[in-house]
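pls ignore typos typing on phone
pantoate + seq
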Amino acid sequence: MEILREIRPVRDLVGGWKREDKSVALVPTMGYLHEGHASLIKKARADNDKVVVSVFLNPAQFGPGEDLATYPRDWDRDAALCESLGADAVFSPEPAVMYPPSFEAEVSVPALSRVLCGASRPVHFKGVCLVVTKLLNIVSPRRAYFGLKDAQQFFILRRLARDLDLDVELVPCPIVREPDGLALSSRNSYLSPVERTAALALSQGLFAARRLVADGETGAREILEAVVRTIAAEPLARLDYAQAVETATLRPVARLEGECLVAAAMWMGRTRLIDNFIHPLE
Ligand code: PAF
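k done
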């Protein structure tokens, strides 16, 4: 497996593969890989001839006061996992490679980025759009893989790709969960044992909402009430939002009709956790 720190060698490597007519996949990550990332790499491996994993803790998607400085890192474990899953290359640049001095370009999908998580993280999705645009330009993959725990991110990137005519297929991959239901996240490592147990309020609230939907309920108020009630019953949890939105615009809906996202975010101490499900249910 190749480990690349600069842009030119990535272009050279991928250019060689493309001359041999190989299909190339990109799995963008911020490192501290877990089974959720592993599922993306495995899918990319199964669908493509060549797989590039990017490991880049993107400063542009963290706002002031957010957890950039404390975000967990484990380069050796990440590299070993990528290798064991059959990745062909890992691209892991230093921030100055991606954002050299005097860098100033911006990429954004403003309306979709202002709502849901964007309401409390105003610069986040702009930073995500910027780095993903750069990674797609550097690697020029046929397909790129994203986990649906960050469903808003996926729908914003889907719009970005459509609006900018990006020649790439964005592949959404299902949320991977702990056996007790908690959605996997690198940020789960911040939770104390007590918080880890209390954090289940988020997935349990969404599971309760999902059961209502499975039983035929379509009213957003009734569905969201199940989430809000479950989180309110957990004294350590503080709800950020629970919303039902259509996926194309991320605007709230009164009824689940067509493709909708039911998403929630919750604070557990200083850790912000997100989870969701998509309607129609799979
Ligand atoms: O989902 C993530 O881990 C990040 O937002 C991404 C897509 C790798 C961009 O930094």
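The mean pLDDT is 98. The chain has two domains: 2-173, 186-277. more later
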